[in-house]
Amino acid sequence: MQISPSILSADFARLADEAAAVPNADWLHVDVMDNHFVPNLTLGLPVVEALLKATSTPIDCHLMIEDPDRWAPAYAEAGAGSVTIHAEAAKAPVRTLRQIRALGARAGFALNPATDVTQYEDLLGEIDMLLLMTVEPGFGGQRFLDVVLPKIRRARELVSRHGGQIWIQVDGGVAADTIERCAEAGANVFVAGSAVYGTTDPRAAIDHLRALAESAPRPGGAI
Ligand code: DX5
Ligand code: ZN
Fold first, then answer.
1. In which pathway does it act (predicted)?
2. For a pocket test of ligand 1, which of 9, 32, 144 has the largest count of ligand atoms closer than 8 A to its C-beta?
3. What residues have CB less than 8 Å from 160, skipping those under 6 apart?
4. I need a labelling partner for 110 at 20 to 30 A (CA). Which of 30, 124, 144, 218 fits?
């Protein structure tokens, strides 16, 4: 069970300090938005490069951009540990996922809430992490969408049939009152923005979220 706090809810003027505030994080989740794929604009490669110099926590880049085929390899080349592209945006996902891996990063593939996962079964061999959005992408602090839970279960079944190595990440509205449902459905990497950086003690919030995820029943009743 891994926790990836999203710096979207952190203080952008103090990113190095905000990274240091979560030494118990497995990853730092960085939301790159271009105001085309989603109606919000955040940050890009220069900020990721600066953050990589400022922290030893691996960077988990979530690219919510229109042309990930053009931009994703540069994030892997810069040293991000994981680079995730959206299924709805990529025009050549197999090529781009392979480029990400060839550059030494984990290849992530993200699906919006309404995007079916079963159509991507044949691509599982190209993917290190499936990101299932549990809000419509674009903003932090939105309400968790329960409607995605059956898809998390379906994704876990597909991944198990495929050997079980692929991580399943959930992103959006993940907090103390929703994380157990996600874990029980089969997620094992949890992005949390407001539930970490919106609290007075981000480090303690991560420990709490991790404990809840670890104590949730495993999918299908497995131990
Ligand atoms: C939303 C982003 C999320 C966001 C989550 O499009 O992808 O990573 O930071 O924020 P919370 O945890 O507040 O829903
Ligand atoms: Zn995200």
1. Carbohydrate degradation
2. 9
3. none
4. 218
Spell out the per-residue pLDDT of the chain, length 223, in tens: 999 999 999 999 999 999 999 999 999 999 999 999 999 999 999 999 999 999 999 999 999 999 999 999 999 999 999 999 999 999 999 999 999 999 999 999 999 999 999 999 999 999 999 999 999 999 999 999 999 999 999 999 999 999 989 999 999 999 999 999 999 999 999 999 999 999 999 999 999 999 999 999 988 655 4
What is the rounded distance in angstroms from the CA atom of residue 214 to the CA atom of residue 178? 13
Domain boundaries, given as residue ranges, for the chain: 2-215
3-state secondary structure of 4: strand
